[in-house]
Amino acid sequence: MKVLAIDSSGLTASVAVVEDSRTIAEYTVDYKKTHSQTLLPMIDEVAKMTELELSDIDAIAVSGGPGSFTGLRIGSATAKGLGLALDKPLIHVPTVDGLAYQVYGCGDIICPIMDARRNQVYTGIYTFSAKAGKKEGTREVEPVFQVLRMQMAIAVEDLIRRLNNYNRPVVFLGDGVLVYREMLSAGLKVPYSFAPSYMNRQRAAVIGALGIRYYKAGKYETAMEHQPEYLRQSQAERERAQRERTAKTLIREMKAEDAAAVAEIEYQTFPDHWSQNAVLDTLSNPQTVCLLAEKAGKAAGYLLAYLAGGEAEIARIAVSEGLKRQGIGKKLLQLLEETCKEKQVGRLLLDVRESNREARAFYQKMAFQEDGVRKGFYQSPAEDAVLMSREL
C-alpha cells in the first residue's frame, strides 16, 4: 500500500510518501514561510524526486487536527482537492495521535502538547503495551499503541493533575513544551522527560505509517466527507458567538428569503427535518403564522403555526444551537399569542415527543397543559406524541 501523507497542523509543514514497510520520501520544513506557500510545492518536489504518479497512490493521509486553524484548513483543503481530483480516499489521523506514535514502543506515559494559548494545550495521553503485543510462540513483540485519553483541549494545570494521578513516568513532546516547560517542571510529582528534537514535532511519515494502520482497520473516508477537527472555536468564531449572545433579540414575520436559514436550523434540530421547499410552502399558506427570531442579523429561531376553527396549531418551533436558554422560544410564543388575539384565535395546540422532557417542561412553564398521548405518532424514530394545549 502506498500513501501520500500531509501534516500542516502546526508551524511545521511536512509531506511524505509511505509504504507498508518503508518511507520512500519525506520533506519537512519548520522555517518562517506559511503553509500556503510551501505545501503544494513540497508535494510536487517529492513526486518529482521519487518519480511518483499521484494517481498511483492508494490513499491520502492527513493530520486532521487539532492545531493551527489556518494550517489545518490549508492541509485539509489540499488533501480534499487531491482526493477529489484523484478519486482517492482520505485517512483522517488525529494530530496528537501522530505526535505520540513517534515515540514507538515507549511503555511510559506519552504526552504530546500543542500550545492552544491562554494556558491551554491540545493534548492526549498515550502509551505502548509490550505485553499486549507479544506474539505467541516467538520472542517477537509488536507493541500495541494505546490511547489512554483521547485528544482534548485542557488547561495545563488540569493536565498536570491528571498526569500525577497516573503515577508513571511521562515523556513530553510538541511545540507546547517550550511554552509550558517551567509550569510542567513546577507541578509534576512523577518522573518526566522531553523528547529530542528529531521526534518532538509533527512528521508526515508518521501520519502516513499510522494512516496505513487506520486504513486497514477501516478508518477512512471520502474526500467529500473529510472535515478537520478543531476541538475549540477560533478567536473570530468565539467573538462572533459572543456578539450573537449579547445582541438584542428581534422577532418578526418570516419572509421567503429566510427559508434557507430556517431549513438549516431544522436540519440541526429534528430527525424528521423539513426542507427549504416545505418551509416555503408553509409561508405561502394564508392560514399560517410564521415568525423568525434574529440576533445580530442572523436567524436564531423560528415558529410555524397553522390557523383553523379559532385554534392555532404550532407545527414547528426551534432555536439555533448555541443560542438556547436565552428566552428566544419564550419571545416567539409571546408574539404568537399577540398575533392570535388579533385574529380572534382562542386556543394554542401542539404535540411533542414523549421523550423530550426539556421541551415539555418549557411548554408547561408557558402555561400549556398536557391533554393526552397520541400513540406511534412520530416516525424516525417511532415514538408517542404528548398532546398539549393552552387557552388564550
UniProtKB/TrEMBL annotation:
The record's section on InterPro entries has: AcTrfase_RimI/Ard1, Acyl_CoA_acyltransferase, ATPase_NBD, Gcp-like_dom, GNAT_dom, T6A_TsaB, YpeA/RimI_acetyltransf
Q: Where is the N-acetyltransferase domain?
A: 249-392
GO molecular-function term, one example from the UniProt record: N-acetyltransferase activity
Keywords from the UniProt entry: Acyltransferase, Cytoplasm, Transferase
The record's Pfam families line, in alphabetical order, gives: Acetyltransf_1, TsaD
Q: Name one GO biological process term.
A: tRNA threonylcarbamoyladenosine modification
- Protein family per UniProt: Belongs to the acetyltransferase family. RimI subfamily.
What is the protein name stated in its UniProt record? tRNA (Adenosine(37)-N6)-threonylcarbamoyltransferase complex dimerization subunit type 1 TsaB
